[in-house]
Amino acid sequence: xxxxxxxxAIGATVLASCGKSEKQIALEKxxxxxxxQDSIKLDSFKRAAAEEQQxxxxxxxxxxxxxxxxxxxxxxxSYRSSNTVTTSxxxxxxxxxxxxxxxDAAKGTVIGAGVGALGGVLIDKNNARGAIIGGxxxxxxxxxxxxxxxxxxxxxxxxx
Length: 160
Fold this sequence. Notes:
Layout: H1 2-18, H2 22-77, E1 79-80, E2 84-89, E3 92-97, H3 104-123, H4 127-153
Antiparallel strand pairs: 1-2, 2-3
């Protein structure tokens, strides 16, 4: 029996020595509370950052819509001159150069002259005279057709 009591006493002593003191328990509670408060702060910070990001996206979307509206209104008020397109928008005037490249009138003139010259050579016995006459006639016809296409596309103002 003495042996059993000695084993129980030693076991109780070991268990008592392994237990945590009140200071350690209080410290662990404070650390747990601090960690919980930090997680709450982190969550509120993340929420605020997400709200700020959403607000910025919404502002950017509104700015894009406003720019599109201004652009549509400006294009409705734009008018063309001979070499430039001038756009007036809320007191701001910008000038853009017309698109570059050959006009339809120039293309029509060149193509008409080539086809007319070829036709003139084939029709007239005198090749040089036929090429000149056919080239001039073809160039005139090609210019007239190309100029009409330029008017349709808006590159040139229609006759008033």
